[in-house]
Amino acid sequence: MGRRKSNNTSSSNNQDSPFSNDMELHQPTKIRFPDEDDVALDAAAETSNHDESMCDVDTSVSVCDKPAEDPQCQPNVSIPDSDEKTSADYYFDSYSHFGIHEEMLKDVVRTKTYQNVIYQNKFLLKDKIVLDVGAGTGILSLFCAKAGAKHVYAVECSHMANTAKEIVEANGYSNVVTVLKGKIEELELPVPKVDIIISEWMGYFLLFENMLNTVLYARDKWLVDDGLVLPDKASLYLTAIEDAEYKEDKIEFWNNVYGFDMSCIKRQAMTEPLVDTVDQNQIVTNCQLLKTMDISKMGPGDASFTAPFKLVAERDDYIHALVAYFDVSFTKCHKLQGFSTGPRSRATHWKQTVLYLEDVLTVCEGETVTGNMTVSQNKKNPRDVDITLKYSINGRRSVVSRVQNYKMR
């Protein structure tokens, strides 16, 4: 899904980090990852992307939460025949393949941030019992073991659990890391409680694949009262972009395909958010905070919500799409640490989520696009996300009011 533009260019205009508001810091904070543990941290300063990511954020808009069902991951059973599989089956099957783990491990922003959080905050891990939810190859468990954890229970539901066991043995950590294969909701740990839960649960649009509720289940069942969840904060943001060239290529293309009308596909394409990288120069408006989730305190239903937004045009331009992205932070560290997946950040495998609008909005500097976004789990498969977008503009050159529905599948 490569775009014609790259978002690897750093932004130097980052004085107003949203973390200076959310974390009640006295000064705007640049999150950096200094070296600490030999060669393993040499690239840390390069991989920090909070320094590059933040734009002005309006945090004054309130959020109206709506409840949602607690998702269930599939138990560790034999995979059914292909004609009997659901998308939930494919979810776990996909994590049995090495390619997806290679992509995640090579996401330097993602993996180095976790490594730095663990290695630079060994006082949090020392002699603690850790639960790694969705362990994959076991990389986070190995980080914790090396940092001095008393014991780590690495839970993985896919067949990758077998490989994780081999990796743990090959690196001499079998006495510290125990890999458990199965569904978190059905497992019993060898210990009654754990001190820390660590997980890389975030999906596209933050909530796609919805592994968050599995983390919350583990938190409620096994975490001690004063225990830690790493990471403990995640925030979803919205902005607007000019994207005429790419919208023409991806959406308008279906109007005339070698002389034939295939616009019925266009209507379907408009409902599917596009996961792709966005050039920061395409951004037309401010960035709006939609929702901040406190993973240490939130309930399962908080992953579904309705949030209002107000996007203010920063120049005369056109708006073809809204773009969502998220930030993740570890607030219990000695120094605030985390990363952003925004267009002004170093690219990650999460990229950004592009929601194309049916209308082309002609905006003048200072005009506003207002509305609200409703995010909810799909009723048939809670790992999928349904999005309803209501937006309107009453400007000099555009007067539009519309509701659009999107489905992340």
What are the defining features of this structure?
Hnrnp arginine n-methyltransferase1; alpha/beta; Rossmann fold; 17 strands; 2 domains; seven-stranded mixed β-sheet; 409 residues; five-stranded antiparallel β-sheet; 12 helices; 22% helix
Short description:
The chain is an alpha/beta fold.
CATH A-level architecture of the largest domain? Distorted Sandwich
How do the SSEs run, as a string of H and E? HHHEEHHHHEHEHEEHEEHHEEEEEEEEE
Number of helices: 12
Broad structural category = alpha/beta
Please give the number of β-strands: 17
Low-confidence stretches: 1-48, 51-56, 58-92
The level 1 CATH classification of the largest domain is Mainly Beta
Radius of gyration from CA coordinates: 22 Å
Q: What is the CATH homologous superfamily assignment of the largest domain?
A: Hnrnp arginine n-methyltransferase1
Helix percentage range: 10-25%
- Binned strand content: 25-35%
**The biggest beta sheet, please?**
7 strands, mixed
Q: How many structural domains?
A: 2
Distance N to C terminus? 16 Å
CATH fold naming of the largest domain: Hnrnp arginine n-methyltransferase1
Outline, from the CA principal axes?
elongated
> For the residues shown, what is the average pLDDT?
82
